[in-house]
Design goal:
With about 700 residues, the protein is an alpha/beta fold. The strands form four sheets. The chain has a seven-stranded parallel beta sheet, sandwiched between helices. Strands 17-22-21-18-20-19 form a six-stranded parallel beta sheet, with helices on both faces. Strands 3-4-5-7-6 form a five-stranded mixed β-barrel. Strand 12, helix 13 and strand 13 (about 375-380) form a beta-alpha-beta unit. The relative contact order is 0.09. The structure holds adenosine-5'-diphosphate (ADP) and magnesium ion.
Length: about 700
């Protein structure tokens, strides 16, 4: 068995240049499609398919439809349009009627065809004075090419992504031959019992039918199998990494004395929601274990994550450790500092703040206190991961708005301690599909609701021509003593339109629209001290309207502001819009979010409509994923988005869930994939994740 298989297995790894009909030049061209070995050819999946099963008699074609016809070339030639364009045209007759094939700007085609030749055309039929197909797919039938005909016509035909100098037919025939010769030899990596449980096709069937299906049902089965495999391999790998880390990261065993949580609750001015309690319990359990916690806590802006994290701080301090919180902006750091110190200082717990603008003298002081254990809780920005910051014994590190940090910053922060527990917080809801892929190695807690008494923000999308009404509305709100934000996509103009620039809009509003009100302009290029002044004036209601860029996206908590107006709203992603909306509706007053936009395309319209419809951040995140795809949603690669080539995280989310469940179960039973049934999977993963996963991780 072994001996017989070996040559074909080697053949699968063979560089395509050695395959019949390829050679070095074609191999180079194929590499642009990501194809370098024979197996890559098998996994070069079609973009779409064309149903060319039926050959129609020309008499029976219906204009407007797409058909395959077969006949003889009766005449052909080149002519010139009035504008001088060259047109190649042929007339094909099958004994029941004639059809014209027309190609613009491709006079060289004439050389390929001869009068009297048998030909197949595939395309949309239009009706002029005669029937016509414009730029149809064609196939000249020669005796020796009958085999080719089998591949390209009279069947469901795969259409591949192409690159220069690689034609559809060339690639198709290459793949066809490879499937015929080797698909049976591809190793099955999904264990049989898992395939059986979900009625998944075997790999040979899947490969044959993803390329050359005889019917669409087979194609569906093939697709499901291949996508499941992709997700399954990814999730198995994540399960292995997570399991390995759990075992490796000797953590701190925090003790939760009985009554500790009760006493914490008593100190709060409100009652925790069920979801907050559930999250706290999960965190407490993680922290009590001697493995390091790696937990993601997600929830809407204002859903009450901070107080949950405060219990974790409380727990670590009661155990004699320090807690550190890293946030992306100074504003946010300051805000956290206020909340956290207000709660902890009265308990005799020392809380400090360290940010970029902290004087170097004060910084040195704080660092010294951190090192010697005189500070219990430190809140800061990136300054916290500087080399010269060290802790006496940090037991808990918290990262807020974690998507603003890279993976390496997270790990630097963690290394400030000896296996500290890690709590990551985010107010950018992550669709579950992304959570289990990108953050598949974290445990996740979710707070879905908002604390009681929060009034939903009324959201309206209006087009540019109704702007005046919006401004009038703002004046009315200001007259009631409330305040407004007006957000623009950019600071400066880019020549497209002035309302997308905060500076220009500020000038315009101040001079022409609200001459009697107090306006201020806030953007990222202002010095920290200027920003602070504006923020604090706004808080004191010395400013009626704050014109701003997205710098206010996180961290400003000001209940008296009731209007959030977003200019050129189509230029923002849903997550960002959602964050902005979260800036209002924070007090008891009815609040409004108004989007101004004339969107340029359908996707943008869809986004704005979805935003108007729902306030549920998770629903918006799912929507965003469908509209923009995972890369855009996360803000690309550095966040460790795994490459998903075949599946679609939104469309195929059921398969992803299934793969996730099976993978984690498999690794729970056989973490090293040592079982004979898992051997092919093991070898595949080791080979695929070379360098990222070691064989020792799997033992
Ligand atoms: P997040 O960090 O998720 O954005 P916060 O923790 O800052 O949210 O909470 C927003 C506001 O809601 C804060 O003023 C907080 O004191 C308050 N809050 C939190 N939990 C509750 C609760 N269970 N009941 C009432 N108010 C709450
Ligand atoms: Mg927060």
């Amino acid at each position: 068995m072994q001996e017989k298989n070996r040559p074909i297995e080697d053949r699968l790894k063979l560089n395509v240049r050695y395959l019949k009909g390829v050679g070095p030049r074609k191999a180079e061209q194929l590499s642009r499609l990501g194809i370098s070995t024979a197996i890559d050819l098998l996994y070069c999946l079609p973009r779409r398919y064309e149903d060319r099963r039926e050959i129609r008699l020309i008499r029976n074609v219906e204009p407007g439809g797409v058909f395959t016809i077969k006949g003889t070339i009766r005449s052909h030639g080149i002519w010139k349009t009035k504008k001088g364009m060259l047109v190649y045209e042929m007339v094909v007759n099958d004994g029941t009627g004639s059809i014209h094939g027309v190609w613009y700007n491709q006079p060289y085609l004439k050389r390929y065809f001869t009068r009297g030749a048998f030909i197949i055309l595939y395309g949309k039929v239009e009706s002029f004075r005669y029937l016509q197909m414009t730029h149809p797919d064609y196939e000249v039938l020669k005796k020796e090419e009958e085999d080719l005909e089998k591949i390209n016509m009279g069947r469901i035909v795969p259409i591949y992504p192409l690159t220069q100098d690689i034609t559809q037919k060339y690639l198709r025939s290459l793949i066809y031959r490879e499937i015929e010769e080797t698909s049976e030899a591809v190793k099955e990596i999904i264990p049989t019992h898992i395939r059986a449980r979900h009625k998944l096709a075997d790999i040979a069937f899947a490969l044959k039918n993803i390329h050359f299906p005889h019917k669409f049902e087979n194609l569906k089965r093939a697709y499901d199998r291949i996508v499941f495999e992709e997700f399954f391999v990814l999730e198995t790998t994540l399960a292995i990494i997570k399991d390995k880390r759990k075992r490796d990261q000797r953590g701190i065993r925090h003790e939760a004395r009985s009554g500790l949580f009760e006493s914490f609750k008593k100190m709060l001015p409100f009652r925790l929601t069920e979801e907050q309690i559930t999250a706290i319990k999960a965190i407490e359990k993680d922290m009590q274990s001697d493995h390091a916690m790696n937990r993601l806590l997600q929830g809407e802006v204002g859903s009450g994550k901070t107080v949950v994290s405060m219990y974790a701080m409380f727990l670590t301090i009661k155990n004699g450790f320090q807690a550190a919180i890293m946030v992306p902006t100074e504003t946010l750091a300051q805000q956290h500092y206020l909340t956290i110190s207000e709660f902890f200082m009265p308990l005799g717990i020392s809380v400090r703040l360290i940010v970029g603008s902290t004087s170097s003298e004060a910084k040195n002081d704080i660092k010294e206190q951190l090192r010697t254990g005189k500070v219990d809780i430190i809140i800061g920005t990136h300054s916290l991961i500087q080399q010269d910051v060290s802790f006496d014994n940090v037991g808990l590190v918290i990262i807020d708005e974690q998507h603003k940090f890279g993976v390496s910053q997270r790990s630097l922060f963690r290394k400030k301690g000896r296996g500290p527990d890690v709590l990551i917080m985010t107010a950018t809801p992550i669709p579950r599909t992304l959570a289990i892929t990108v953050y598949g190695d974290l445990d996740v807690s979710t707070i879905k609701g908002l604390p009681e008494g929060r009034v939903p923000v009324s959201t309206y999308w209006v087009e540019d021509d109704r702007k005046d009404k919006v401004y009038r509305f703002i004046s009315e709100e200001v007259a009631k003593g409330h305040q407004a934000y007006i957000v623009c996509p950019r600071i400066e103009e880019d020549g497209r339109d002035e309302t997308s620039s905060a500076k220009a809009l500020y000038e315009h509003l101040k001079n022409n629209i609200f001459p009697d009100l107090k306006l201020a302009l806030l953007h990222g290029r202002l010095a920290g001290i200027q920003k602070d002044k504006i923020t604090s004036d706004f808080k004191k209601n010395k400013i009626n309207i704050l014109v701003s860029t997205v710098v206010i996206e996180v961290g400003i908590d000001h209940p008296n502001a009731t209007c959030m107006v977003i200019e050129s709203a189509d230029r923002f992603g849903l997550a960002q819009l959602h964050q902005l909306r979260g800036r209002v509706g924070r007090g008891e007053h009815k609040s409004y979010c108004i989007l101004i936009s004339d969107p340029k395309n359908e996707a943008a319209r869809r986004r704005l409509e979805a935003f108007e419809r729902t306030q549920d951040g998770f629903e918006l995140a799912e929507e965003d994923l469908i509209i923009r795809g995972p890369g855009e949603v996360l803000g690309v690669r550095q966040h460790g988005l795994p490459e998903i080539r075949f599946g679609d995280m939104a469309e195929d989310k059921d398969l992803l869930e299934l793969a996730r469940t099976e993978a984690f179960q498999l690794v729970a039973q056989d973490r090293g994939l040592r079982d004979e049934r898992n051997r092919n999977l093991r070898e595949f993963i080791i080979d695929k994740y070379k360098g990222r996963i070691k064989t020792t991780d799997m033992s």
